[in-house]
Write a structure and sequence with these properties.
Blueprint lengths: L2 E5 L10 E9 L2 E4 L4 H6 L4 H7 L9 E5 L8 E9 L9 H14 L5 E5 L5 H14 L10 H13 L1 H11 L12 E5 L5 H25 L7 H15 L2 E5 L1 H7 L2 H7 L7 E7 L7 E12 L19 H16 L4 E11 L11 E3 L5 E3 L7 H13 L5 E6 L3 H7 L4 E5 L2 H14 L3 E3 L17 E2 L7 H10 L7 E6 L5 E2 L10 E2 L4 H12 L5
């Protein structure tokens, strides 16, 4: 990952390959943002005019490269758009700073060192820029560059994010002109006090864990099946001091986990249920996180149509987010107990696969008529939710790439939030937005339960097509223990970016929901979730 430092040097005096400055969209053209004063002076106060002549406006995400004038030790200036100039007395939006830093970091791939002279008024600004740089510089290069990358791929299947780094080293200059990520970034203008240093340290942990999730999501299913995902979790636990327990297919069958066994029985790679645990002696609350971990989803017997299979390695994004969040909580030493549950299976069609019309007996004892084997995520989550409920956590949140219906409702960048408590749903929405993750509160209309009625079982695994994302939430609610405050995050839209990169978001796995889950754990550590 990119090395990050705080520097007291000026933008003109630091030796670097590039200097990044912010530029805002003013009423009469681009306006240099705070932090760019020295660079603007080097252009004789005409930086805005030069950028305008080059067609720049200062709009969000806009990146303009120009040769540095005399007086700068760096040969290149990179101007990145921050959007509209804030109202008088107002500060730049932290998410705008995060995205701008990410855009610049991506644009500087192949560069050894860059200085970021962006507005850093308070520690939150420093945190945003640090996160943006570290997330924007991410590159998944495990499968590029021949033998070295192949070794990285093997390591990646074994221990998650580490393999990406190893593969990247071998791949940086070899295949398809791929460039290595920005190696080093210096943040200029931030106070070097305790709050700003803490902001950078937290950002480094957060970005490392988001990138762990991204690596896992981007790893193809032939290198990441349920057993190897479980092994990656065990390795992370060893590294960062949290407990990991794995339940294999024999124990799942013996324990009556009908959902996990039923979904996984069509595959040659059997299912796993993984329990993660971060405990702190001063913890007063417990948060349980449950992640859908379908390492590949063919749809099962209800096979997906052509064009819908190619990205289905990402159907374990929820489990990746949970692993990353628990690891972050452990690394940050949060005074809260966090358990993570990874419901891992591969959904494949075969002679042994669950058929439409079959009835599964779940871990809770409820029976489910499987009308569509492509509605499998809710089946593995149901078992994990029931098991997690036995420990009576104060709060329980599940995360899943669950329904295409949620993508239709909210698009590709926003996840839906459902909950059995309106205040909790609102709290998650507020935390997600502050963390830079787009989300929207969604209802759980009780009348939609009727569509899941089954003539032969307690419940069917699908209901009405209209409102399908909400139906899935209602199904999951059936498996939440009494008295537990619960929320469901459907991240089907933002979990995997099939279009071009933007801001600090790469193409491919995004690590969606990791930052929200960490923010939730931090709030619980301070007793502020109630």
């Amino acid at each position: 990952m990119t090395a990050l430092t705080l520097s007291s040097s000026s933008a003109t005096g630091l030796r670097a390959d590039a200097v990044v400055v912010g530029v805002a969209k003013g009423p009469k053209g681009p306006v240099p943002a705070p932090g760019a004063e020295a660079v603007d002076e080097a252009y004789d106060g005409k930086l805005g005019a030069v950028l305008e002549a080059l067609g720049a406006s200062g709009g969000e995400g806009e990146v303009t490269k120009l040769p540095a004038p005399d007086g700068l030790k760096a040969p290149l200036v990179v101007a990145v758009g921050l959007g509209a100039v804030p109202a008088k007395g107002a500060a730049y939006d932290t998410e705008a700073l995060r995205r701008a830093a990410g855009s610049a970091a991506r644009a500087l791939a192949g560069t050894k060192k860059a200085a970021f002279a962006l507005p850093l008024e308070v520690a939150d600004d420093t945190a945003a820029v640090a996160e943006g740089v570290l997330l924007g510089a991410y590159a998944f290069q495990v499968y590029r560059g021949g033998a070295d990358a192949a070794d990285g791929a093997k390591d990646g299947a074994k221990d998650g994010a580490k393999g990406g780094a190893k593969g990247g080293k071998g791949a940086k200059d070899k295949a398809n002109g791929a460039k290595a990520p920005l190696a080093e970034a210096a943040l200029l203008g931030a106070k070097r006090d305790k709050s700003h240093r803490a902001a950078v340290e937290r950002a480094a942990v957060l970005a490392a864990e988001v990138n762990r999730a991204r690596d896992l999501i981007n790893t193809p299913a032939n290198d990441l099946d349920p057993a190897r995902f479980a092994a990656a979790a065990q390795q992370a636990g060893k590294e960062h001091g949290f407990k990991v327990a794995v339940t294999d297919e024999k124990a799942l069958a013996k324990g009556g986990y009908g959902g996990l066994v039923g979904v996984g029985q069509g595959s040659q790679t059997p299912p796993r249920l993984v329990r993660l645990e971060h405990r702190h002696p001063k913890a007063k609350q417990t948060v349980a996180l449950v992640g859908k971990g379908i390492t590949y989803d063919s749809g099962g017997i209800s096979l997906k149509p052509a064009g819908h299979n190619e990205t289905m390695k990402c159907d374990m994004s929820g489990a990746a987010a949970v692993l990353a969040a628990v690891s972050a909580a452990a690394r940050l030493g949060l005074p809260v107990n966090v358990t993570g549950w990874l419901a891992l299976a591969e959904n494949m069609p075969s002679g042994s696969a669950t058929r439409p019309g079959d009835v599964l007996r779940m871990y809770s004892g409820k029976t489910v008529e499987v009308l569509n084997t492509d509605a499998e995520g809710r089946l593995v989550l149901a078992d994990a939710l029931t098991k997690a409920s036995e420990e009576k956590p104060d709060y329980m949140i599940d995360v899943a790439t669950l329904t295409g219906a949620m993508v239709l409702a909210l698009g590709n960048r926003t996840f839906g939030i459902m909950a059995n408590d309106d205040a909790f749903r609102t709290r998650i929405h507020v935390l997600a937005e502050a963390a830079g993750e787009q989300s929207w509160p969604m209802p759980l209309p009780p009348e939609l339960k009727k569509g899941m009625e089954s003539p032969i079982a307690d419940i069917a695994n699908i209901g009405d097509r209209m409102g399908g994302g909400l139906v899935a939430g209602l199904f999951l609610e059936e498996f939440v223990g009494d008295g537990i405050t619960w929320a469901h995050l459907d991240i089907a839209g933002p979990a995997f970016n099939t279009s071009g990169p933007f801001g600090y978001t790469p193409k491919g796995g995004t690590g969606s929901a990791v930052r929200t889950l960490v923010a939730l754990a931090e709030q619980a550590a301070h007793g502020d979730l109630a």
